[in-house]
Each structure stands twice: as structure tokens, then as C-alpha cells.
Amino acid sequence: MMFGSNLALKNEHLGQDNFHSWNRIVKKKIYHNLNRNFLSTYEKGISAERIASKILTSKGYEILGQRIRTEYGEIDILAKKGNDVVAIEVKQRQTLAGAKCCISSRQQRRIFNALSYIASERNKSLENYRIDVICLDAVGRFEHIENAFSIDELVAC
After folding, report:
1. What topology is assigned to 41-156 in CATH?
2. How far apart are CA 91 and CA 102, in angstroms?
3. How far, in Å, CA of 42 to CA of 74, rounded?
């Protein structure tokens, strides 16, 4: 950014309207770089979950809760569509492929245990429950993987 006499020179050369336009562009770039480079992992996760919530809402899902913590694990988003209650894990990486690959079997088990706990609290069986994953990349692409890992397989483990 320009200060003092440089600011006055910029006004003279560009004209007042052009200067304000230029100033907005600079502020926008600084804001973008601050957001991209200096967000903590926690803040990036919150941002990704907000985006995922908007994706789900646009697909007709009702958001029941976010960041639901149980003694067994955490569910990023709990949503409902029709009769199905869905636990959604949100992953954001530089690429979609990277986001898809980063859910370990241990993490799958934690999500399943948290979902089982929530179902038992509601006195429901797991037959109308499923686990989805929403993957986001660095440029804004996403993929919603329904029934990403089977509850039946996790029960058998």
C-alpha cells in the first residue's frame, strides 16, 4: 500500500475513481492472501464445514448439528434427508484425491462409534443411518461420496 506523498501522486496520475478501484483491488488481494496463508488448521476446518453445510442444504439435506462431540469421537456434520440420518465427514486438501485418501480405518471406526452412540441416545437402530464424506480441494471443487464406508462392514470389525 502507498502512504503519504505517494498516495497523493497516485491520486493525481490515476484520477480519484481509478484510485479507489485500485485500492479495493489491493485490499482484496491482501485479504485473500491473509485468509489463504494464515488461517489455522482449526479455522480451515470450520470454513470447509461451512461450505459442506451449504452444499448439503442445496441438495435438500436438513442440518441437525455440526461438530458433534461424543466420548467416542466427533461427527463433523449430522444431517437428515428423507428417513436417512447421515454423519458427514468433511475433508479438505490441495486435491480431491488427497482428500479422499486421508480417512484412516481408525477414523472411520471413531465416526461409526460416535454415530452408534447418537443412535442409541435416540433409541434408534442403525438401519436408517449412513456415513458420507465430502471432499474439498484448494480451488473450490468438491465431491460428495454417499455411503462412503459401509456401517455393516464397520459393525463386523
Report:
1. Trna Endonuclease; Chain: A, domain 1 (3.40.1350)
2. 8
3. 14
